[in-house]
Design a protein that fits this description.
454 residues; 2 helices; mainly beta; four-stranded antiparallel sheet
Length: 454
């Protein structure tokens, strides 16, 4: 009864905050798988430095869109040019009463849903969602169990598939809960836009290099250069300008990780394999029940972070920090040292693009609906813990509206006279003198940068 009362109070507080107008550009979003078999996915929003301690705003998509929900097992979210793209594996959970979508597109400022697509494949064939990457103001890519699809961002419609990205196994009719089916073999996962091309993780092929003009794969870097039968985990963009790839122990999705990283030059496609020191685990991967992986890069410092352990995806106790410049790999978090018996859930760990702080979701056990968000500094020192109301959240991914990858496309004007202008994170002009405190874009001549207005 006490848990129910707390839940009602928190829900009422969240709805009241929405009515008052929540600023969704300053905090952090947490995309949740939520309770598979019982309800659709959800998304929470946290303001980590709220002066009154009103940190959490729960189920913000439902709060801003009464009668609408996300799809089932929504693993991925990304903000691109003022819109929030949320990708789910299926359109509706079997225990839910509302049809969501494999693709949900919302306004990144208000979270009002603009459009939802029940299916990814235009012919309605099975194509379970994985990730999204923005390519231009009018085009994005959606990775899926059967390849990579081109999304028209103006019409919010799938137009075609990226040539060469197909799942080589084809459909086999097995249900999406069967890990031996084609849905979990030969799928596409994480994607990065770099040097005018998109680089994508393909479970059976390796790192795909995609020409974004022709929407076709031009090159493939196989992970067998690391060792025979090695596979790819995921790919991230480092602040050093290179791509960084995690290495799986195979392509069959069993989840083993190898103690190596691959560095790829996105322009020349030259690559190097870097062996991690003894005692360091490689980044955990999860193809058998795909997630974006807890492998991430700082946007400002030449540093990588990841979760790793002996049991790969289910090892949620260790966080490693890799300094690209010094080639040093250090274990900075060991939750075995914590009396609270926390574990990192799945892929739910990312680095804040402004503060370099690590945000990660922790839990005790799959059967325990007790969760919290933890906030650490860049060296693994705990800053604050944020308990959550009781629910089987199964958090997937922190999303930062302050990230450089939100890629606000500013209005095109003749600005050769060097006039300085200011825009919010949705690309709207603001007056710096009257703007509310927060993150803004400053444009002077042909240069742009993100700044903090206090």
């Amino acid at each position: 009864m006490r848990q129910l009362f707390s839940f009602i109070l928190a829900s009422c507080a969240a709805l009241a905050a929405q009515a008052a107008g929540t600023d969704y550009t300053q905090g952090v979003f947490i995309v949740n798988e939520d309770w598979y078999g019982h309800q659709n996915s959800t998304m929470n929003y946290i303001i980590p430095d709220d002066p009154e301690g009103n940190y959490w705003h729960y189920r913000v998509i439902q709060a801003e869109n009464p009668g609408k929900e996300l799809g089932c097992t929504n693993q991925f979210g990304a903000i691109w040019n003022g819109r929030f793209y949320l990708i789910a594996k299926q359109a509706k959970d079997g225990g839910a009463s509302i049809m969501g979508g494999r693709i949900t597109v919302a306004d990144a400022h208000s979270l009002k849903i603009i459009k939802q697509l029940e299916n990814i494949a235009p012919d309605g064939s099975t194509s379970d969602g994985r990730g999204f990457v923005g390519v231009s103001a009018s085009k994005g890519y959606v990775s899926a169990s059967d390849g990579i699809w081109v999304l028209d961002l103006d019409k919010i419609e799938i137009t075609r598939k990226v040539t060469g990205s197909d799942n080589p196994n084809g459909p086999d009719g097995k249900p999406n809960t069967d890990p031996s089916g084609s849905l979990y073999n030969g799928q596409c996962g994480s994607m990065v836009l770099a040097a005018g091309r998109v680089f994508a993780a393909h479970q059976s092929k390796g790192l795909l290099v995609i020409d974004t003009d022709s929407d076709a794969v031009t090159d493939v870097i196989s992970m067998e250069v690391v060792q025979k039968d090695a596979g790819i985990g995921s790919v991230v963009a480092g602040a050093d300008g290179n791509l960084w790839v995690s290495i799986a122990g195979g392509t069959d999705g069993r989840g083993s990780a190898l103690p190596y990283l691959m560095r790829v030059n996105p322009i020349t496609l030259d690559y190097a394999v870097i062996a991690l020191p003894e005692g360091a685990y490689g980044p955990s991967n999860s193809w058998y029940a795909w997630t974006p992986d807890a492998f991430c890069a700082s946007e400002n410092e030449n540093v990588l972070y990841w979760k790793g352990g002996a049991n790969t995806w289910f090892s949620g106790k260790y966080v490693f920090r890799y300094d690209i410049d010094t080639d040093e790999c250090t274990r900075i978090i060991d939750l075995n040292d914590d009396d609270a018996d926390w574990k990192i859930y799945g892929c739910s760990m990312r680095v804040h693009p402004l503060t370099e702080e690590i945000y990660m979701s922790v839990y005790h056990d799959f059967q325990d609906p007790t969760y919290a968000l933890r906030r650490y500094d860049a060296y693994g020192n705990l800053i604050q813990e944020y308990p959550m109301i009781s629910n089987y959240w199964f958090p997937s991914l922190p999303v930062f509206p302050q990230s450089k990858t939100t890629a606000v496309v500013l209005p095109t004007v003749d600005n050769s006279d060097g006039i300085t202008e200011y825009f919010d994170l949705q690309g709207r002009r603001v007056d710096r003198r009257t703007a509310a405190p927060g993150i803004y874009i400053e444009r002077s001549g042909n240069s742009t940068r993100k700044i903090m207005i206090k």
